Amino acid sequence: MQRYTTAKEVLNQVFGYDTFRGFQEQVVKSVTQGRDALVLMPTGGGKSLCYQIPALLLDGVAIVVSPLIALMQDQVDALEEVGVRAAFLNSTQTMAEADLVRQRLLAGDLDLLYVAPERLMLSSMLIFLGRIKISLFAIDEAHCVSVWGHDFRPEYGELTVLKSMFPSIPRIALTATADEKTRSEIVSRLLNDPQLFIASFDRPNIFYRIVDKRHVREQLLEFIRYEHSGDSGIVYCLARRTTEELAEYLTQCGIEALPYHAGLSPEERARNQSRFLREDGVVIVATIAFGMGIDKPNVRFVAHVDMPKSIESYFQETGRAGRDGEPADAWMAYGLNDVVNQRFLIDASEAEDVHKQLCTQKLDAMLGLAEAPDCRRQRLLTYFGESSQPCGHCDNCLNPPALLDMTVPAQKFVSCIYRIQQASLISFGAQHVIDVLMGNMTDRVAQYSHDQISTWGIGADLSAGEWRVLLRQLIARHMVWVDVQHRGALRLGEKAKALLRGELTIQVRKRVTERRKRQKERSSLDGVLEAFSRRDRALFEELRHWRSEKAKETGKASYMIFKDATLVEIVENKPMTVTQLQEISGIGEKKIQNYGDEVLEIVENHT
Ligand code: ADP
Ligand code: ZN
Fold first, then answer.
1. Helix (H) and strand (E) counts for the chain?
2. Other beta carbons less than 10 A from residue 215's beta carbon
3. Does residue 260's CB lie within 6 angstroms of at least one atom of ligand 1?
4. Cα 491 from Cα 105, distance rounded (Å)
5. C-beta 141 within 6 A of ligand 1
6. Separation between Cα atoms, residue 536 and residue 529, nearest integer Å
7. Atom 17, ligand 1: which residue's CA is nearest?
8. Cα–Cα distance between 297 and 565 in angstroms, integer?
9. Is residue 43 lining ligand 1, measured as CB closer than 6 Å?
10. How far is the C-alpha of 43 from the C-alpha of 28, rounded, in Å?
């Protein structure tokens, strides 16, 4: 392919964009000058160009290490769409296909090669790399190298040898999640005196909301129906079975939903993922097995029906919404079971104690976010070490919850657990403790004579639901713990004493029924289309129809052909010549070559 001399040229002519985003330009400069770089940008920030542009400016092939075998084909397709010579090597290929790629490498016929870390580390592969000219190594999802982080992969650990084997080739490590510790681990394992590029983690177009979990299916259905009908979205669940049940439920309710989890056959997984990526308006109901590297730009919502185990996971998963910068929602339903389940998963794991402590800290931070009465975004950003003001664009900013001082009821609850234990020498579950507090005469109360103990009926002023919300907070704050292996028996936690002694206070959000955002927040595309004249709208529809035909013909996702924003610009400017068409954002030389005539013809027929 023709060689380019400046980064700007590549940005304009190959990718069709006018200006760099964030610090892309500085990263490109640093890497092309041969210096290592660490790039931290939130999902959707534009990390790919940080290594794709240097790959086109430098001699030789850029080796991109990525764990996402399933997505390599898409990444290569997208690059070929703009005329970049790219290929991948992974276990899905036949020998002949892999051979062809190796020949192209030897002939210097590739700008980028995507490869999985375990493949790269094969000794035969390393020897082969010694025979070709390499421009740089880009290590995507670099947090996988960190033992401390939340997604360690042993095969990433081995990448440290790149440092000694190819000391003079620049390396760029990229990730969307990394706190201080993970960051320093990435640097020490992969890089040599790197320049650091750390972007703000704020995602201003995402609206964060966490609601009380009651009937989660119905809540989810209502959320999707009223705020996101016809939109693409991801629903995260903890259990494989839940993904299938929920997908079926949504489908019965008229929403196009598909399950995704590691237990499905590879064919079904690939089929569901590809429908989600390519079609508009598909909802995928998935475990966390889904999503790393999913770069579908127009995901309009991410819903959690179960709480994730850490803020890192929550941030990464919700970050898959709204990568195109248009309004998007992060919605989560959170309830008593989430606290109990997540605590149990840690207790029951075989990990060492230090690791369990770490998981507990991370979980506590997540619970703090879920219980928070103040700005969610501020909490998130603080967690990643950024200071900020209340955002005005989250549930708590929009409807600040009233807080109730519940210290006295909390003390009653904890004493009641204690008295019951004293009276019977065994522990009971939440329902029974609440019955005793409320003075409900049940068979079990009678059987154990719990109407005789001093805490009987002292909590009749609250409803069972209110007691449960309080219990959730008591568990979150280590005042009570649930012994899941003994039928959910409640026991006193390590902070119970301090509560009884009056050293700690408890505040609980007043229960409010979830207030819906008033109406579907309209994306700017809706607004633009509305403002179009009837003629313009017809042109837009014709271009969109042409695009989906092209997508079918080429087997590519429609957004890879042209993004919505590019179609809008075409309608607004009605280019008559190739030069005018080239002015439009998202149209580079290859797009002109492939589609220029057809697009110009459609426009001409309309004027
Ligand atoms: P990340 O890997 O950081 O999640 P991507 O590299 O996939 O993000 O970029 C996200 C989206 O932003 C892509 O659709 C990409 O084409 C677009 N993009 C990246 N850089 C620019 C730019 N300078 N101008 C316009 N769009 C850009
Ligand atoms: Zn806020």
1. 29, 17
2. 10
3. no
4. 63
5. no
6. 8
7. 46
8. 12
9. yes
10. 18
Distance (angstroms) between ligand 1 centre and the Cα of 564 equals 14
* 41 close to ligand 1 (CB < 6 Angstrom): yes
pLDDT of residue 150: 66
Q: Is the dihedral of CA 230, 231, 237, 239 positive or negative?
A: positive
Q: Which among 505, 512, 330 has a CA at the least distance from the CA of 411?
A: 505
Ligand 1: which atom is nearest the Cα of residue 17? Answer: 24
- Span 308-325, pLDDT tens digits: 999 988 998 999 999 888
Mean pLDDT, rounded, of the chain: 90
Return the bridge partners of 355, or none.
none
Amino acid at 91: S
Q: Could you report the per-residue pLDDT of 239-277, keeping only the tens digit for each?
A: 999 999 999 999 999 999 999 999 999 999 989 998 998
Q: In the predicted model, is pLDDT for residue 119 greater than 60?
A: yes
Helix axes 524-531, 564-573, angle to 10 degrees: 20
Closest ligand to 206 CA? 2
Within 18-141, residue ranges assigned H as helices are 24-32, 48-57, 69-81, 95-106, 117-120, 123-129
Residues in CB range of 583: below 8 A, 6 or more apart: 573, 575
Ligand 1 pocket residue status of 46, Cβ below 6 Å: yes
Angle between helices 336-348 and 353-371 (to 10 degrees): 170
Q: Is the pLDDT of residue 452 over 70?
A: yes
Beta bridge partners of 331: 209, 303
- Across the range 542-551, mean pLDDT stands at 88
Reading the block at residue 437, the tokens are 């507090």
Overall residue count recorded for the chain in this entry: 607
CA atoms of 390 and 231, how far apart (whole Å): 28
The strand pair at 507-509 and 403-405 is best described as antiparallel
Percent of the chain scored above 70 by pLDDT?
Answer: 96
Which has the higher per-residue pLDDT, 400 or 304? 304
Closest to 35 measured CA to CA, from 172, 230, 203, 221? 172
Give the pLDDT score at 384.
80
**pLDDT attached to residue 223:** 95
The two structure tokens encoding residue 425: 């020498």
Which residue's structure tokens are 């301090």?
498
- Residue holding tokens 């023709």? 2
Rounded CA gap, 398 and 234, in Å? 24
What does 124-180 look like in DSSP terms, one character per residue? HHHHHHTTS-EEEEEESSGGGG-SSSSS--HHHHGGGHHHHHSTTS-EEEEES---H
Neighbours of ion ligand 2 (CB under 5 A): 375, 377, 391, 394, 397
pLDDT tens-digit profile of 30-78? 999 999 999 998 877 889 999 999 999 999 999 999 988 877 888 899 9
**Can you give the pLDDT at residue 529?**
78
Task: Print burial letters for 407-423: b (CB count within 10 Å at least 16), e (below 16).
Answer: eebbbbbbbbbbbbbeb
